Amino acid sequence: MTRTRSWMIILLTLSLSCLTAYAQVTANASIRGTVLDSTGAAVVGADVTVSNSATGFARTVKTGNDGSYVVEPIPAGVYAVKVASSGFATVNAAKVETLVGSTTTQNFTVKAGATSETVEVTSEAPLVDQTKTDVSQNITPTEVQELPMIGRDVANLAYLAPGVKAADSYDPTKSRMAILSVNGQNGRNVNVTVNGIDNKDNTVGGPVMQLPLEAVQEFAISTQRFSAANGRSEGAAINMITKSGTNLYHGSLFGYFRDQAFNADQKLTDGTTANPPYSRQQFGGSIGGPFVKDKLFGFFAYERLREGTSLTENPTALSELTLATPIGAQPAAVLPTPFYENRYNGRADWKINDANSAYFSVSLQANNGLNDQSDGTGDLTNGNFTVNHMQVANLTLNSMLSTSLINQLTLGFQYWNNLIASNISAPLVTFPGASFGTNTNVPQQSFQRKWQFKDDVSKTWHNHTFKTGVDYLWEPRLGGFFEFSSTLEVDFADTPQCILQGIGCSGFLPAYPQGFATPGAITSMGIANGDPTTTVPGGTKQFGIYFQDDWKVNRRLTVNLGLRWDKDFNMVGGSAVANSATYKELAALNSPISNPYIVPPSDDNHDFSPRIGFAYDLTGSGRHMLRGGYGLYYGDIFQNIPLFMEQLSNPTIFQQSLSLNSPSDVVPGTGKTLATWRYGVDPLPTIPAPAGTLNPGSVGRIIDPNYVNPVSEEFNLGYSWAVSNSGVFETEYVHTLGLHENKTMNIDQKVPSIAGCTGPASDPCGLVRPLDAAFAATGLPQLVSVRDEQSIGRSRYDGLNFSYRQRMTHHVSLNANYTLAWAKSYDGGGGSFRNYPRNAYAPFADYEYGYSPNDERHHVTISGIFDMPWGFQLSPILQFGSARPYNVTNASNTLNTGGGTAIGAVVPNSDPTNYLAFLGNNAGAQKCYYTQQCTIAKYDPLRGDPFFELDTRLAKNIKLGERVNLQLLAQAFNLTNRANYGNNFQGDISSPDFGKAIGFINPTSTNTARSVTGEFGFRLSF
Questions:
Q1: Read out DSSP for 797-825?
Q2: How far apart are CA 843 and CA 825, in angstroms?
Q3: DSSP 8-class letter at 526
Q4: DSSP-based three-state secondary structure for 412
């Protein structure tokens, strides 16, 4: 038996058999406190009963030798807590609110008297979580319901937590989701759970689906130092729970409506404005209640979205495409981008008996849209359609084996299928500023089917809360297919204005006498074919096990001690390695350069995560808390990392099968060269058949033999001050060191062959690939680059958070935070992948290290709910962030590395910010760099614009009885009409737009970066 299997069996046996263990159930909450008499002495053996009349839930525990009690895990909600002890009057706290993933402290002082005498506690429980050691924030049910959200995506409210801000979407499948940059990262490594079940995208990271807002009760976001019960994330953890039915029938009916007339003109990046057609209707409702009182409950929510959006065509592209109409272009001044979606949630809760309960919840999301791959430079043939189907479900059984021993068993299922394709299959024709024909990004598909088993056991013993659990994920299907250039691409060197009118010509011809059919008008052609499948052979598995002790050392000190171990199976794509064409070719080379890389990788076995935290009551009053902790947190290897290597293991290889870019290149099947071929007159080229081996000039892909999971080393130190019973001020320092992050390295990068770079002006350094001789000796096709996925990337984040939270007091609730932070990395940032250094031989050079793309020195978020006279309510969210950095690049490979590296700008050692020093002079840049007279411009040296957004919601509540309320509302997003470009600025030094804004921060989902968007609506609740 291997050492790894031995460890697994020992740990699994421990977790299932240990009766002195307590499970941290992430979808639940807890209540704890101390019972003292009027002299301050502990009341031992008192009965503490926690009950919820809405569901019939009740649990009784006894106080310990120090008078303390703890009741957990319990569903988040509002409870009555009653204390009864012989010789003392009964004390009752009628409304104790608990929030998901947090602990509410409710202390009692009892007075001598008969137990039949009841004393009501009227003060609310303290707002400070006296056992909290992580960096987290709860988003309450009131905030979920009353704050403005542009997409009704509850994750938008995660921006209310310190250290969290909006980021650009990192994948087209996430274009309508809230993308969260947590502690300077990009959002991929945020692990989202729904009722404790995985809602994670294993292809590119981040969440898979969005729930109907009416089904979301609340959620908690832990941005650092979270419990050992949470794994598979080195970023943040979001725990979300859905609503359940109760003994009272309750529900809602809502509708939200937007129209073009409610929108201000969009300010485009070129300074012009536009207001394309726009309409949006979002409506639905919910219903919940008892099937059998105190026994069986049901809840259902539905949400429908119809959106008639559109995209204004770039004026330059429109003029080009209009002239290209005779050869097949279908220009349009406005491109339709409609979107339709349905979201569902259903849940049933069953109280089997006093000791056992269960619930089943299922959520579904289905949507479809058009042209979400369009960028405003294509025509109606250049679009696409997108179809999404998503599901997440759980079946959870809670068993109270004794008053101190509880087990929670959870079975989960997740499904996702995303297809991006086109109904048109036609050659892609490109001009310098426009294109028509099949979009080069389609078709592509991602899918995953995931089963999950979790078992959590909990045991309270004296002052210890022991926790253990296992979490097993089986993903029998993970993958899809990915194609690029699926139809023939033909490229014109000049614009239609030049070709037809002789205006603005930059090509080699002063005029085009035969128009588009002029010989030489086409300067390049290409197409890719083969098997594009990227499905992981045999699927994947993930196993996690944890143990934690929450130790109440005394009334003032709580210590958390935890250890977690995670094990992946086939996440790194090892089962595909043997058939990979790149591995086969490198093995045949038998070169000392490539031989170290042809050892098959294996999944990481060493993901042990120690975690320690403390919370200390400085004065014993529960008003001044000092907390801190340290931990290691391992993340996932996203499927998109081994994707291309797996694709190269197919019987036929998806690769560029035709690439013509020289005038002398022969167009197959025509007998003509590219210089003499005539568009629209001569036949299209004969496309070569797919090959089972790599073609000359292909890109090789491998996974490094030493690849391991990314890990972050985190610690925090914080202070909480309960300013009043309703307000708390918190400050904390957080540090995150990201290790083993993804980096893509070209192991065959070109090197100088001429000493002193004294060669000809066109190639002064005589750059050659180190493996050229080995390829020539074996007769194998020469690869243009060999790209090795390595886990050597690093990043760092240091932040200081200040926040103030006030629950509803004097008709005002408030949440305000300010973060002062620094986020740095080597050409990437935490959570990202396929990061290329500018020089693969020096990935940790000083110039490779700089500020991460989501670095913000200052960030402020303020939100509030203001109850005003006559039933009016005002709810604003204000966000401000200082300017984020962007990189300096070039249009061509400045250093002529042979591909597989990022493109940087070469600058003199004596003038490192002179980014234009070698503009248009790559040969001079190479000579200067390789003779060490120059360096590369530092990573992300420039800054974009600060971000500012104000979203506001004004509502009028009309009471229609004791339990019925009609809310009429108006919402405005980006009320100040600010064009938020963020760091979407042109960094290409060869572009005439260098240093100018070219886009917006995530404009389609979480932010209305372009203009004010207005919305009117209603919500009827009962």
A1: EEEEEEEEEEEEETTEEEEEEEEEEEEEE
A2: 11
A3: E
A4: strand
pLDDT in tens, 411-435: 999 999 999 999 999 999 999 999 9
Which residue carries 């003779």 as its tokens? Answer: 931
Q: What angle do CA 855, 856, 858 make, to 5 degrees?
A: 155
Tokens of 112: 């001598």
Beta bridge partners of 412: 394, 452
Q: How many CB atoms lie within 10 A of CB 230?
A: 25
CA distance 136 to 965: 33
DSSP string covering 845-884: -GGGEEE-TT--SEEEEEEEEEE-GGGEEEEEEEEEEPPP
Beta strands in 620-726 (DSSP E): 624-634, 655-660, 666-667, 672-673, 699-703, 711-722
User: Residue 240 belongs to what H/E stretch?
Assistant: strand 236-242
- Cα dihedral 185/188/194/196 (nearest 10): -80
Residue 653 near residue 699 (C-beta atoms within 8 A): no
935 - beta bridge partners? 907
Amino acid at 659: S
Give Cβ neighbours of residue 563 (< 8 Å, ≥ 6 apart): 228, 546, 547, 548, 608, 609, 610, 611
pTM: 0.90
Model pLDDT for residues 721-769, shown as the tens digit of each residue = 999 888 999 999 999 999 999 999 999 999 999 999 999 998 999 999 9
Tell me if 157 sits within 8 A of 240, measured CB to CB: no
Helix or strand holding residue 304 (H, E):
strand 296-307
Using the predicted structure, report yes or no on whether residue 1002 has a pLDDT greater than 80.
no
Q: What is the pLDDT of residue 449?
A: 97
Please check whether residue 441 is in contact with residue 373, taking contact to mean a CB–CB distance below 8 angstroms: yes
Per-residue confidence (pLDDT) for residue 47, from 0 to 100:
94
CB atoms within 10 A of CB 156: 24
Burial state string for 243-270 with b = 16 or more CB within 10 A and e = fewer than 16:
bbbbbeebbbbbebebeeebbbebbbbe
Tokens at residue 856, please?
């913000």
Instruction: Count Cα neighbours of 477 within 13 Å in the Cβ-side half-sphere.
Output: 13
Contact 480, 492 (CB under 8 A): no
Residues in the chain: 1022
Beta strand spans in 655-697 (E): 655-660, 666-667, 672-673
- Which strand (E) or helix (H) includes residue 588? helix 581-589
What single DSSP character describes residue 163? Answer: T
CA distance between the termini of the chain: 61
Q: In Å, how far are 291, 293, 361, 498, 551 from 55, measured between CA atoms?
A: 12, 8, 17, 74, 31
Structure-token pair, residue 234: 């080195």
Say which residue the tokens 């060999």 belong to.
Answer: 786
Residue 965 in tokens: 């309320």
If one counts every other C-beta atom within 10 angstroms of the C-beta of residue 36, the result is 18
309, two tokens: 């959006």
Q: Coil, strand or helix: which one is 31?
A: strand
Q: What tokens does 299 get?
A: 């809840």
Q: How far apart are CA 727 and CA 715, in angstroms?
A: 26
Phi, psi of 577 (to 5 degrees): -60, -45
Alpha-carbon span 647 to 535, nearest angstrom: 8
Distance, CA of 903 to CA of 1002 (rounded, Å): 24
HSE on the CB side for 459, CA within 13 Å?
15
Give the Cα separation of 264 and 273 in Å (integer).
10
Residue in 148, 159, 152 with CA at minimum distance from that of residue 212: 152
Helix (H, G, I), strand (E, B) or coil at 776: helix
Burial zone of 713 (CB within 10 Å; 0-12 exposed, 13-18 middle, 19+ buried): middle
Q: Rounded to 5 degrees, what are φ and ψ at 681?
A: -110, -55
What is the number of H-type helices and E-type strands within the chain?
A: 8, 55
Please name every residue paired with 873 in a beta bridge, in sequence order, or none if there are none.
867, 955
CA gap 182, 823 in Å, rounded: 10
Tokens 């349905």 correspond to 342
